[in-house]
Amino acid sequence: MRYFFLICVSAILLSSFKEKKIKKEILPNILLILTDDQGLHDVSYYGTKDINTPNIDAIASNGMRFDQFYANCTVCSPTRAALLSGTYPDYVGVPGVIRTFPEDNWGYLDPTVKLLPQYLKKAGYHTGIIGKWHLGLTSPNLPNEKGFDYFHGWLGDMMDDYWLHRRHDINYMRRNKDVIDPKGHATDLFTDWSIDYIKERKQSKEPFFLYLAYNAPHFPVQPPKEWLEKVKKREPQLPEKRANLVAFIEHLDDRIGDVIQTLKEQGMYENTVIIFTSDNGGHLPDLANNGPYRDGKQSMYEGGLRVPTCISWPSNVKKGSISNTNWLSMDLFPTLLAVANLKPDAVLESKSMLGELKNQDLFKEEIRTFYFTRREGGNAYNGDCSYALRFGDWKLVRNKPGSPMELFNLKSDPFEKINVINENAKIYADLNKRLMQHIQKAGRIPWQKP
Fold it and tell me: Are 333 and 377 found together in one domain?
């Protein structure tokens, strides 16, 4: 009888252990929100007085805010390529913006590169992209060919109008491979489609990865009328351009809140990793706010590269935590692989953020070399590149082709006011050598379609 009792107890304990193990191995959903050209301080969690972004703020307050987060580039396509590939954009053929016309196109995503959704599918994720793709207009670089089970959004770069959804009079709106012509503001469309997607995924046992890439607040700045009126009433002192941009971002924030509210209503919020970030700094002609940092979108100075970023994951990330570690957009790639218990097929230049997210008190930052490249056309660039490199406290900048190199110490001069290249010849020589090695490696990768 005693042995029978022991056998029963053992069976119950084993069953309980297996049940706990299965529970522990349930993978979280992933919601990756990328906005377009949102300035570092165009969120109210930094105390910006003229803007209210309660829903973005809530991601930060319910998780970790990253105060030293860099976009991989100062413009759209390269950062997106880095985020989805886990490496520098010029290592995958996207040193510049992918555009409609060949004479103004400066990137071609390497078709052999394995992207994040292709990995996540291995772990059983259903993968969806809603919104802006901007990594290829034709096969073999369409979203459904690069690991996304579902695509509902915009294939191209910027929209010429947020209600008409055209670029150069071309309709780039798609549902998977089908051309569609929906009515409504693009921010509302992408939000409503995301809500529908989340509700559909609730019916499945598979975890989901939703890459929600808004076009807003990229110019043309077109907030819905009621949002602009609300801002003008509240902030009558604002210049017209700034009022429009604030209204545009507040409308965006409101719709982000609707997506997150859907997760809560469907009982999925607690087990969803939510990432919010932007693809580059804010556009200064639209009166974006990049905080005290120098310059903005298109520039290799800090204002063009630093972006608002926060991550929440209720069961794993401490509420209200703040990171001062230097990270890059591409670091989200190995982070999400680690969340899904996956490893990349090859050694990557990116690093996982998961250690800091889960164990901030034990995490120690590794000093890394960060490279930034942007290839562009026009009279200012002539198809050439601008560059920047950061190593520790030092930053080397060539902001436009042909302009002289500049060297800044970001510890003593975070706003890049004093060029100290002449006083630091050895530092300059070391950083320049690192940059040249990067340029040589990137030079082996074609960035034009064969």
Answer: no
